[in-house]
Amino acid sequence: MPCAARIVTLLTDFGLRDHFVSVMKGVMLSINPELKFVDISHLVPPQDVRSGAFTLSQAYPYFPSRTIHVAVVDPEVGTSRKPIALTAGDQFFVAPDNGLLTYVLEREAGAVAYEITADNVFRQPVSATFHGRDVFAPVAAWISCDTPIQKMGAVLKQPVRFAIPTLERTPGGLIEAAVLAVDHFGNLVTNLKPDDLPAYSAGGSRPCKIIAGRREITSFRRTFAEGSPGEIFVVPGSAGYLEIVARNGSAASELGLTPGATIGVVLD
Q: Which residues neighbour 120 within 8 Å (Cβ) at sequence distance 6 or greater?
């Protein structure tokens, strides 16, 4: 029976200059010519698993059922780190077991991970430096052809996760927060949500400020256009988190902050 048309997304840190992404697509099309590809991103900062995990988490919920997501940000390729396949909700994920699926596992309570050990579906010989081509791509393609994911290997009870930053509150009205990601524009996506700050609650009368880098931020806007040229301010982002932004500039560059950086909130 021929394989059916399925959507496969790809997220990598491979960039756009080299051949790596096209080779992965070629391997999958050789197995299932009916595949439809969607590129989530290939500009994840090199080896930045946390940024890749966040980007994947923002994209996958918008895809239809039975979509297969292939994510490869894999600084430990060729080592003892495991390749895994995941069922979560009604979608599939294929990735290295290095925390790249952390947000998916956190959000999808019924997710089940399998360690991929069925090397009969791998492209041979398996390169020690390109598992995207030789492991993850063919596994995804065979899943698209309705190969049961259970045949890829045994259940992996504790796939690797990193600790997602949470808000720390003190009795004195301080909140310790963190930067989750930096987008293409240099906007700092924090783990604060609008309800966490009085500036966005009903009335918005209680003053507050955010300490980011060595700067105090006291401007809280609703849109990017409300900020003055060069001003650093806060807006509610489309992902549901508050973002620190610079009008016509990069807040990340201005403040010297990267994912994982700590920021503070002072409630006066």
A: none
The overall average pLDDT reported for the chain is 93
Q: What pLDDT was estimated at residue 1?
A: 55
pLDDT tens-digit map of 64-106: 999 999 999 999 999 999 999 999 989 999 999 999 999 999 9
CA 94 → CA 67, 167, 201, distances in Å? 11, 30, 40
Please say whether the beta carbons of 10 and 121 come within 8 A.
no
- Correct CATH for 168-267 of 2.40.30.90, 3.40.50.970, 2.60.40.1080, 1.10.287.90: 2.40.30.90
